[in-house]
Specification:
By secondary structure, this protein is α/β, with parallel strands linked by helices. The protein is built from 17 helices and ten strands. It has three domains: about 1-65; about 75-255, Vaccinia Virus protein VP39 (Rossmann fold); about 285-380, Tetratricopeptide repeat domain (Serine Threonine Protein Phosphatase 5, Tetratricopeptide repeat), CATH 1.25.40.
Length: about 375
Amino acid sequence: MVQATIEAMLKQKIGLDANSIGSNAIAYAIDQRRSRCGSPTLQDYCDRLKHSSEELSALIETVVVPETWFFRDREPFVCLKQWIQNHWKPTRKLRILSAPCSTGEEAYSSAITLLEAGLSTEQFRIDAIDISQVALEKAKQAIYTKRSFRGKTEINPLYFEAVNDRYRVRSQIRQVVQFMQENLLEPRFLLERQYDVIFCRNLLIYLDAEARSQVMKTLDRALNVSGLLFVGSAETSQVPSAHYESINHPAAFAYRKVERPEPAPLRVSALKSLPLPKQIPKVSQLEQARLCLDRGQFTEAARLCEAHLSIDRTDTEAYLLLSKIYQELNQLPEAEQALQKAIYLNPKFYDALIELAVLKEQQGDFATAKILRSRVQRLLNL
């Protein structure tokens, strides 16, 4: 099938999992580009893609539709501000990475957050990368409509100036953000830079397993020990628990990178003199399931998680974990059922509500997703 060949090209270039956005959406984008190029058949267009990196880039621009706004989800930026005020020691310049940055709202939101946390523009620098040149050009222009200010986001004149019916980010904020075209699967400058904070939200859910693993390794290399990593609400299972600990801030989905020193090897003579341990502590089935999930052993992770739930059928965290495992196995009905059980046991279970809302959005059930997000908003307002 010709479309399958094109989807494979997209997977190789940007790691796109076709199931994440649906083959129909990809077919629509392909047809748009095929018509624009004047290719009479799908096969002709496929042949063109094989020999034209420019056309492949144009197709990627059509497939990757940016959807972001200032201070999206709010809590990650609240968490960042608190971290700056309580933990950051300004002995050197703070460096932040926004990847992918889309049209720039996240990067500029980060800059505003740092200013409101008390830092000056000389104390930080933000790198913002994206594969889309079109999105980057808009980000550099820094002019936005009201659609980029959703919910309770205030258009503060300290940070924005009115330009007709639009709003432009003020120059002192624009100058601390550097926008660059970069593919996280083919990193260039990231191999030479280190960051204290990385935002990588709502990218991993669109990638296949191999690409997700590769991106996480790239980000891990780029993040300093004790630095913060922000991911999307449906991406927490991708953060390796061996190297990161969750920040206790609801709805921020933030993790701190920790240093896990390897134990020094013992000499044989020392081993002989050591007494045998009285008892080796057992790792729970649930922890084993988490480890298997981190390693990509999804079938074994599901077995362990289900075994745990056969003993404790009221463990809401286990149902949440099981849902994430089922999503990796592409067993979406089972994933949804696990989330529904968690919410039934705890109607105020924020993480499960968010996870189910995202799952519904991916399935195209936006009405149910809207209801779930309304429940989440009510919880935040309590």
